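Exam revision sheet. Question 4 asks you to relate a sequence to its structure. Input first:
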Amino acid sequence: MLRILLARMQQGHRTAAYPAEVPTLPDRLRGAPGIDPEKCVEGCRACVEACPTDALVAGEDGPRLDLGRCLFCPECTQQCPEGAIAFSTEHRLAARARADLQIAGAFQVRRAELDDKLRRLFGRSLKLRQVSAGGCNACEADVNVLGTVAFDLGRFGIQLVASPRHADGLLVTGAISRNMELALRKTYDAVPAPKIVIATGACAISGGPYAGHPEVLGGADAAIPVDLYIPGCPPHPITILDGLLRMLGRIERERRNA
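Answer key, structure tokens:
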């Protein structure tokens, strides 16, 4: 017992200081991408043709990127001859509206807050039922990581619960396969109103690499209303946590109290 206590003292404080402090993220992290239209060569479609999910489309003023379809792979950046597209380490990717995930230039952090009534209702305590509706387990794994001591999601009053009847909303991952459509709808109906839905990852937002396949719906909002979109493939745990906290209006509050 003494050795256990000594080892615990030597380990020190393991929980990340985020959001009281800006997170330290590795340089290799592929966060928010940005587009510099001035570097685009007229008529060049190299990045558009390289994109495996059609997240990039050509426009008159350069390419437009759908962050909800983006897999954050390096194909577009590797194929662009002028370096017009580049990934940053910006982790704040979540947005309330699907249209806010469209990027045509430099990335700007999007609005993620719920309206005042829902923030007052869920801001101090939020229970979520996680639904994997045809995922590969990558997004699911990063959601599970939030329960570890490094992130300690429970300290913010946010918990994942086993029953939708005990939940305030759903956190959905996966491409929403036809086989999971009914289960997702029934789980949503079982959550008492008012309720919120969070689409986490490219698959849950748009279908990801499976978009257009007849066996997937192409995003959670094809089956149920979505209140928050968290892009990524998979999104970094800090990106998920940031989306949840900004949705609840908790970021600035936590930093003021630090």
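Marking note for examiners. DSSP finds nine helices and ten strands in the chain.
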